[in-house]
């Protein structure tokens, strides 16, 4: 779709709409501009709480890890069943207990690296650890969902520059995943085929929003993208969770993640902030037609210092973007890393 007039597009995964206003790309900008963060050169930072051998705030000493390392978060957003009080039942002020597990995943002991500078083999090791964690946590009867994610960069709220992500496993299915499960199940019930596999087939036939692809995975700017350089990583076959991937597929997923994140950094010749997350099936409930996928939500718009703000109309009405998804994909392809 190349229409340069205002129009709206529907997000098939959520049912929500996004307003696309391509004609606004030429408007002047006199708002906030952030500072470009210089790449961190230190392979080891004695003041970093996540570097190997350092002491964390609570006094725990990190091991001398030499690969991917996972530990329970010192400041978890969720507590175990014994740490939660039961709120009163109320049909207006509605609340209920939420329990779970929060963990930190250090990608590498090298403080200077990010996913964009890691090798395919290093990212494959990370995918393998994600899978191991998924298997362990999804087998627990007290957990309904496992969300694996990364906030990269201070702009996205990262409290530590060391390359790391997080796992939050919850006793309920979170809002975003619940909506996606419902939408995909409804499509599957109607068509007998998975929504995201059908969608990927259309995107591959069109080609304008594809960023990069290999034998088993595709990265694309979704037709309904709200953030300027938002991307979706999809498998070419229907798998609902990480533990369904073969070793070859794990390697291909790592290859796509390496190329995509490195291309982000090339786009504005600066470290590219983003929130990245994996959506997998709920652990205790059926999810017919659900397909595993990954979201990347980067905020940058015009340069390394000018970001998109989701405010005003976006907060009160619906998401809005100026740069079209097709143009975003074209710009990412132009700086694509092999």
**Multimerization status:** single chain
Tell me roughly what share of residues is in helical segments: 10-25%
Secondary-structure element pattern, one letter each: EEEEHEEHHEEEHEEHEH
Discrete helix count: 6
Task: Report mean pLDDT, rounded to a whole number.
Answer: 92
How would you portray this structure in words?
The protein has helices at 120-138, 175-191, 195-206, 247-267, 313-316, 325-334; strands at residues 7-10, 17-20, 69-72, 100-106, 145-152, 164-170, 210-213, 217-220, 231-235, 274-279, 293-297, 319-321. The protein is of the alpha+beta class. The protein is globular and about 60 Å long. The protein starts with 6 loop residues before the first strand and ends with a helix. It has a single domain (41-82, 97-334), classed as 2-Layer Sandwich (HIT family, subunit A), CATH 3.30.428.10.
In short:
This protein is an alpha+beta fold and about 350 residues long. The protein contains 6 helices and 12 strands.
SSE blueprint:
Elements: E1 7-10, E2 17-20, E3 69-72, E4 100-106, H1 120-138, E5 145-152, E6 164-170, H2 175-191, H3 195-206, E7 210-213, E8 217-220, E9 231-235, H4 247-267, E10 274-279, E11 293-297, H5 313-316, E12 319-321, H6 325-334
Parallel strand pairs: 2-12
Antiparallel strand pairs: 1-2, 3-4, 4-6, 5-6, 5-10, 7-8, 8-9, 9-11, 10-11
